[in-house]
Amino acid sequence: TQLLEQSPQFLSIQEGENLTVYCNSSSVFSSLQWYRQEPGEGPVLLVTVVTGGEVKKLKRLTFQFGDARKDSSLHITAAQPGDTGLYLCAGGSSNTGKLIFGQGTTLQVKP
Amino acid sequence: NAGVTQTPKFRVLKTGQSMTLLCAQDMNHEYMYWYRQDPGMGLRLIHYSVGEGTTAKGEVPDGYNVSRLKKQNFLLGLESAAPSQTSVYFCASSYPGHGYTFGSGTRLTVV
Description:
By secondary structure, chain A is mainly beta. Helix content of chain A is 0%, strand content 53%.
């Protein structure tokens, strides 16, 4: 059974601080995706990484896929209250399109 | 653009009752999925479909059935609801190997 462990589960920080969320597994994935979910809504795709060592930037968000394609990180620079939400990582299988999701990291950014 | 539409948005069932959740997508996606989301457990895959007329079991299929008679629709059925099925249910669709588009969810309470 493939598992994805996210850490930390909860994070409460002040506006302007930096943070990193980790997503780890003992399994190799063909792709790793990050989603952001707001209360009462479905998750929304932020990024997909497919190559070991790949780094993608989305404004103040930086995503990295581990060299062995077993782990990933999300780094947010100068967090803002609008970044508040649940962040989910998900590992993909190329055969079925199925995604295995981590438990999520709840981020609260205080003004 | 409608994307993925789930109906109903909220439902309260009595133990033993049955119901069907409807998911409709207008993006011509091949793959469709049903997940449930529970606190601290992330998203868990119930059933999925890689094409019209095909379905497969996910991680937590017991107590649920699905059908995909048309490419754009994926139905999730609960034959005899149990309190353990109280959850938020999300439908998603995708092209093979691409990120998911999620619906806004159905909040189900079984009393």
